[in-house]
Amino acid sequence: MKNAIIVMMTLIICLLVVVIAVLLLWNFNDKEKPTHIPEATTKVESAVTPQNVEIFAADEEMEPQVTIVDKVDKVWGEDPYIDGQTLLVIKNENSYPVRVNGLDVTYISVQGERQEVKMYSAIPSVLQPGETGYASSDATLSFIDFAEDFTGSEIDQDISRVENGHTYTKLEAFDIGFGVAPSDPGKIIVHGMLANNTDVNVDGDKIDVVAMLYDNNNKLIGGIDSTLNKSGERLRKGEQFDFEIENILSFPADLVTRAYRVDVYAGCEFCN
Question: In sequence order, which residues have a C-beta less than 8 Å from that of residue 178 and are 6 or more positions away?
Fold first, then answer.
């Protein structure tokens, strides 16, 4: 009888131990269950909020461009003298003034070869909203042997927004004429007068001039650009003087014979 009681007590103790162990294990597992907090999802969504999209758009606005209204490429000659010219008419369609820091031309051949040429800045180089500018660039091309291997060009713009009211001083061109140079049938001489109708004193060697040549159908066919060599002369308010420029590269005969009229634009950004 005594032994039976001991055995029963032992069984009861073992059963209690098992029950306690099960309860402890159940409580432990319940604490381990994770609470659902969608932190990762929230962080991913924050990367594409409308605010960030607006920031990207603002960054893009920091690099303005101008509109190319007209573009003419002309390449002529045969190896070793392949010459090229690119003419641009550009317009500032932004709502603020811009400065044309540079316009690079990349000439491309039918074989896919490329040659980059730095174009002089446009005239005027500072464009007010809605204003038009003109640019001409000459190049001797070494990447092709025949003019017919030229297939086109690309323009890379370096344009910046103008701050602090920076402007360009434009001069009036009048009594314009042109003719073929007696010593070279491929050279066109453009001549005329420039007048300063501004309050800025303009030094003669700071004046940039571009002449755009058109045929009798008003089609742009060629251009001449130059900085005047009038060192020691100054164009003050109300004054005027004569000028003369000619192309550096010898034009092909068909361009010279087609030249019907010329428009001249002149001025300076830093005038003295």
Answer: 188, 189, 190, 191, 211, 213, 259, 262
